[in-house]
Amino acid sequence: MPDAPSQAPPTKPPAFSTKGGCIQILAPYGKNLDTREWELRNRHVSAKTCVEEVSVCFLCKEDYPRQGEGRESLLAHFGAPKFVASETCFKLNGFFGHRAAYGENYGQTKHVDEDEKPVTSCTTWFRCLFKMIQKIPTDASEAGLEYCDPGKGYQWYEMTVFSRWESEAKCQVLCVDVPIDFGEELKKVLESRTAPLNFGDPFAMHVDVWDRIVVYYDISVWRVRDPVRMLEKDPMRTRNVFRPTHDHMRHAIHVSEILESAVSTATEMQRCRAEIYKGLPQDLLGKTYKQQANEYAAFQVSAVRNLKLRSESNQARLGQEINYAFNNLTLQDSNFIKSITLFTMIFLPATFISGVFSTTFFSYGQLQWEVSDQLWIYWATIIPVTIAVIVLWHLWLYKQDAILKLSQKIGAWCRNVPRESAKQLMKRWERRGGSKDAGASLL
How far apart (Å, rounded) are the C-alpha atoms in residues 224 and 135? Predict the structure, then answer.
């Protein structure tokens, strides 16, 4: 049976334990929820760290507690099941889950039926992976940061997000193992909004967080595409291309896999959002707000799904490049064999002629080496024969199609000659007064 969620809101500012290190906190400036100004700051993490009731926290992977060393207590603050803290979930490429509690808060004075109780708290947890490839040195499709170690060539980000919402004034999000500029970019997005966030929405933070996730997926896809384009523009293919092409294919497969998982995660989040909205008090969020939020969630799912199509296209293009490289190498090997054949054809006629003549042109006397005065016959024979063989070999090698067409024409002409000759004989017989039947019998 799953763990029972905590329904009672905390009586003091939320705190959660970590193993130490540094945490980045993004919160409304001056704790004013109606402002569009946000403050991003770093805070040293001690045994217990208190954060604002409305905030987004970023924790690097190294500071994320290990299983059995505080991870369970950290996730308990966000109402996540204990299984989420296990290494099994930590190694998954994606998931989404949520818990909702229903009660009689929001100043209700009369008892309501169980089925009509509104949502009083909602916790979510989901996981998204990014694989960032090293940027190509020139002609990159985007001007973003370098997210990976140049020596390694790629970097995995295993982003896990936990959220806890209890009221309009209590909304926390924890993001573990995000790209280095996630906090700064999210701050820019929040401050560029035309209106402040409506924290009456349990998924108010999820919208902009997921937008950033889509951006990183887009960067990941295009950084796989750029090396593919470089391969396509390179007319030469050598055996050295196979290892980097294999690496690019591996990256493309991984990106497609995590995008498939991301589509599932976003779809589940969309379904959960629609379900939670039905349980919120009628006066908390308007119908227009809910409808537009659901529509935007569907748009986000569509964006991730289309990025997956782009990633699959990268895979197909890489497959074509690998086939092209194989075919190109086969052609190079074929040309090498042709070169060997050419040298063989150069020396073969002379060897053949010498064997046919079986003539000793050199006479070894006791005092001196004598050369036959008929040696010119050998050269006069092998030089034109060798030239003729090379010319015929060249014509057959490079004019094979033309030779085949010519042979077809000659064959067709040879088949038509007897017919034309027969017709001419018939006409000549008729001119001499012979009957057509007699002429036909003669033919």
Answer: 9
Q: How confident is the model at residue 287 (pLDDT cuts 50, 70, 90)?
A: confident
Q: How far apart are CA 185 and CA 58, in angstroms?
A: 13
Q: What is the dihedral of CA 2, 164, 107, 169, to 10 degrees?
A: 170
Query: Is residue 228 within 8 Å of residue 98, measured between CB atoms?
Result: no
- Give mean pLDDT, residues 343-366: 66
Instruction: Give residue-wise pLDDT tens across range 254-268.
Output: 999 999 999 999 999
Comparison of pLDDT for 155 and 397, the residue scoring more: 155
- Amino acid at residue number 49: T
Q: Are 108 and 35 in contact (CB under 8 A)?
A: no
Q: What does DSSP say about strands 119-133 and 54-59: parallel, antiparallel, or unpaired?
A: unpaired
Q: Tell me the pTM.
A: 0.72
* Residue 256 neighbours by CB under 8 Å, 6+ apart: 308, 311, 312, 315
What token pair was written down for 161? 């997000």
Top mean-pLDDT range of 111-120, 169-178, 256-265, 387-396: 256-265
Distance CA 249, CA 317 (A): 9
Query: What percent of the chain stands above pLDDT 70?
Result: 77
